[in-house]
Amino acid sequence: MLLRSPLVAGVAALAVAAGGAVALNQGQVTQTVSDQQSAQAFDAVDQPVRGAQPQVSRGVDRQVLAQQAAQQAENRQAALAELTEKSGERATTLARAEQERLKNQWVLPTTGYRLTARFGQSSSLWSTVHTGLDFAAPAGTKIVSVAQGTVTSVGFDGAYGNKTVITLEDGTEVWYCHQSATSVTAGQEVQPGEAIGAVGATGNVTGPHLHLEVRPGGGDPIDPATALADHNVKP
Ligand SMILES: [Zn+2]
C-alpha cells in the first residue's frame, strides 16, 4: 500500500552501503536504520515524505479535535439539561397558575335555561321576597357546581325541595334547589362545572327550574346574578 519514493530508497541504499547504522531525520520522526531493520525502516520513513504534515502532528490534532468535540457534546448536553429543567419549572408554574385560576373560576349552573325570577322579586309564591335566581329548564337538565367547593349537605328541605349546599373556600354557601335528582354526597370536593344533580320540580314550585341561592359566610342571601358577575359569569 505504500508508494516508495525512489529518492529515499536510493539514499537509504547508499547509507547502508557505507556500512554501520545511519539516522534519517524526517520531520519529527527519527529512525535508526540497520541492515536488518532497513525494510521496516523504509516503510516508516516513507510515510512522512508523502504527507504535508508529520504523522505525529496529525495524531495530536486528532486528539485535540476529539477532546474539543467531546467538550462541545458535554456543553450541549448541559445546556439541554438546563433548558429541560427550566421548561419543567415553567410547566409547573403554569400548572399551578392554571389550578389557581380554575379554583377561582365560576361557571353557569346549567344550560338551555331562561331566567324566570330574579333576586328580590315579590310573589304570592314566597313568604318574603325571592331569595335566589331561578333558571327554568326541562326536568332532568344537568346542574353543575358554579365554583370549587365542598358539598356540605344534600337532602329534602321543604319548600326548597331536594337541595344541595356547596360551601366554597371563603365560606360562601351556594344552594341548588328543587332538584329531581342529586349526584353528590356531603363531604365531597367538587370542581367548577362538575355535575351535582338535575333540574326538577320538587318543593314549592310551579314548574321545573333550578333555584340558585348564594349566602356569604352561610348568612343572608345576596343576588346570585351579582355573585356570578363578580366572577365574570353572566347568567
Ligand atoms: Zn327561586
Can you characterise this structure?
There is one protein chain. The chain is α+β, with helices and mostly antiparallel strands and 235 residues long. It has 3 domains: 6-52, no CATH class; 59-104; 114-230, Glucose Permease (Domain IIA). It is built from 4 helices and 12 strands; from the N terminus they run αββααββββββββββα. It has helices spanning 6-18, 38-50, 55-104, 224-230, and strands spanning 22-26, 29-33, 114-117, 133-136, 142-144, 149-156, 162-167, 173-177, 181-182, 189-190, 195-198, 209-215. It has a 7-stranded antiparallel sheet. Helix 1 (6-18) packs antiparallel against helix 2. The radius of gyration is 45 Å and the shape is rod-shaped. Residues 1-49 have low confidence and may be disordered. It binds zinc ion.
Q: Could you describe the largest sheet, including whether it forms a barrel? A: 7 strands, antiparallel
Per CATH, the class of the largest domain reads: Mainly Beta
Q: How much strand content do the residues show?
A: 15-25%
SS field, number of helical segments = 4
Q: Quickly count the domains.
A: 3
Tell me, briefly, the overall form. rod-shaped
Q: Give the radius of gyration.
A: 45 Å
Number of strands: 12
Walk across the major sheet and give the strand order: 3-4-12-8-7-6-10
| Assembly of the depicted chains | single chain
Secondary-structure class = alpha+beta
Q: Per CATH, which architecture of the largest domain?
A: Distorted Sandwich
Taking all residues together, what is the mean pLDDT? 82
- Poorly predicted regions are 1-49
For this structure, the CATH topology of the largest domain is Glucose Permease (Domain IIA)
